[in-house]
Amino acid sequence: MDLRTLTGEIIALVGAAFLFLGALGLSRMPDIYNRMQSGTKATTLGNILTLTGLGIMRPEWFPKIALIALFVLLTNPISSHALARAAHRSGVPLTRGSVRDDLEEHEGDGDSGGRGRRA
User: Fold this and answer.
1) Which of 6, 50, 72, 117 could form a disulfide with 15 if both were Cys (CB 3.0 to 4.6 A apart)?
2) Spatial distance between the Cα atoms of 87 and 35, rounded to a whole number of angstroms
């Protein structure tokens, strides 16, 4: 086994660990907003690291893998933001331990009608 393959495998393994931690965060966090944050951040990094490891192991695949990684890097945070905003507007409550709702404070007396506050 050469150094390039070993390096790619280690980076892919670290990426897989982040993907596992993201899945664990989805099951352990108390409300949808915390789940979305842990899932998005960990899976974005996990996907990029896994793809980078594959690109190191197979250099001929690297241009395609770079495009996939760029797509993941751009779409994961945007889709997570849109889902969290939709959940907030539809009135999904925060967990009891939440101390602040920045979106509610920012929208003020907008169209949310007081929804999205603590349960």
Assistant:
1) 50
2) 12
